[in-house]
Design brief:
The structure is a single chain. The protein has 14 helices and 24 strands. A four-stranded mixed sheet has the order 22-23-1-24. By secondary structure, the protein is α/β, with parallel strands linked by helices. The termini are close together. Bound molecules: uridine-diphosphate-N-acetylglucosamine. The site of uridine-diphosphate-N-acetylglucosamine (UD1) has 21 residues, from helix 5 and helix 6.
Amino acid sequence: MDKLNIVGGNTLNGVIPISGAKNAALPLMCLALLTDETLVLEGWPDLADTQSMRDLLQNLGVKSQHSNDALHMRIDGAIGIEASYDIVRKMRASILVLGPLLARMGKAKVSLPGGCAIGTRPVDLHIMVMEKLGAIITLEDGYVLAEAKHGLIGNHIYFPMVSVGATENALMVAVLAQGQTVLEGAAQEPEITDLAECLIAMGAKISGHGTNTIIIDGVDQLTGAKHKVVPDRIEAGTFAIAAALTGGHVTLQYDRPEHLAALTDKLIEAGIDVSIGDNSMTISGQGRPQPVDITTAPYPDFPTDLQAQFMALMVFADGTSNIDETIFENRFMHVPELMRMGADISVAGGSAIIHGVERLIGAPVMATDLRASVSLVLAGLVAQGTTTVQRIYHLDRGYYRLEEKLNACGADITRIKG
Ligand code: UD1
């Protein structure tokens, strides 16, 4: 297994390009199942997770070709209906083929994702959506079997809690259902808006995306389209925090700063300088940040996917801060690892209290999930000596050329092949 050696202490200065968003690309790729024509995703991020989705779609009959930053996808022959456990266990987002398969084929068999490192992550809301549109659902041998013998009919669906994945599945199934579907309590994440915009380019009738009520008028069929994947706000936020932590001056080539307002507001509160340009965002840090409290919540509030990275920043704050995690019940696995580097953190339930320290000391640490792993890399950038992050396959799931992008700004990170 590969690992990263990070020699801490370098200030980051330079320009970092931001890739297309993993969390947008994964559902967008599933749209290839909804049309016989070619779907082109420009700015497609080439990551372990997007490659897993490519494999899954290939198994289902979607041929794809990657060239010049774009993924070209097209159904070739018969469409399969089964997403096996072998693929779903690697990547929870595989559940996103449930809606498109049901919409297109009238049935689907998708393995249940099971528990994962950051919590139980159930799929009851995804199932509720399919049932509301008329599918019969059975659970058998760890699989969800969905069948709509008499077609799918639009309905009024109320989500009792905000779910990004269930909203995406709902959009992807309702676009081909008969009549109107109203999603109330829908997720408002930029990745949902991106999905809706691509669907509209394919001929779907959708309004209200970006708000908590989305209205979908079903159509008979969808066409191909060319769509640019929205830039990755979590990648941009991670590098913004890296710049702040190292007291550097980094310009992100990122043109959707409004998607990161929850983070940049907190960075400014912590005394970090953030300036927004036409197609860029520049972050300058100096000295220790001020302590700032955050609470993770659905968009437009502070994203759970930046919680671990923000904690790495607060570990250095000049005072005590509090972090409440409200999305996932087990998302503090970076805490013991940060503490091995000298951080002073106590956790009670979904809350962490961070007493800022003046220095961290490099140590061997273990990556446990994607965002936890990157928080250890951030801490390693400012720790004294060398930090070795093991199990970095987690990082490769979601960050495109992480060490290359950071090293280009002065970091000292080496990948050790295992
Ligand atoms: C979630 C995050 C998303 C993040 C992604 C990867 C939110 C709202 N969602 O999306 O920002 O990018 O993880 O880290 O911030 N839930 C159920 N039943 C379901 C589906 C979800 O109870 O059927 C619960 C989950 O356990 C969780 C909450 O709803 O507590 C939000 O989950 P959801 O948004 O669906 O998860 P992801 O789509 O993975």
